[in-house]
Design brief:
about 130 residues, alpha/beta, Rossmann fold, 5 strands
Length: about 130
């Protein structure tokens, strides 16, 4: 599995990578704009990411815009629903309307910060993002 982790805080980024590295190779991006560009290049080179993990609050482009652009790009490239990247938001923002907005735009899972490893892994398993 190819995973792209977008997190500006070093300690949180390292925690997420440590948690996810057992499931696949983790790459990183520093912000939303870089994440979208890295995602596009990977999809165009036929080496797509299986999962992206990111916050709503990011430098240069927020998580909502990242979700929207990634889903639009996948649609433009004809990616089937079942083959789309899994988009996992990990954020301190947990107001109902903000969480709903993320799901309405196309995220697959939403987890709180700080990350609780057991709850996070259970959510990924429930969504069949990871299986072990």
């Amino acid at each position: 599995m190819r995973i792209l982790v977008i997190e500006q805080e070093k300690a949180e980024r390292e925690q997420i990578i440590e948690l996810l590295s057992v499931y696949g190779d983790c790459d990183t991006a520093s912000g939303g704009e870089e994440a979208v560009e890295v995602f596009r290049r990977a999809l165009e080179s036929n080496t797509p990411y299986d999962m992206l993990c990111f916050d709503i609050i990011m430098p240069d482009k927020d998580g909502y815009q990242v979700i929207k652009e990634i889903r639009e790009f996948e649609k433009e490239k004809g990616v089937a629903q079942e083959n789309r990247a899994k988009l996992v938001v990990i954020s301190k923002i947990n107001a109902g309307n903000q969480v709903k907005k993320a799901f309405d735009l196309g995220c697959d899972a939403y987890a709180g910060k700080p990350v609780n490893p057991d709850k996070f892994t259970a959510a990924l398993k429930k969504l069949h993002i990871v299986t072990c």
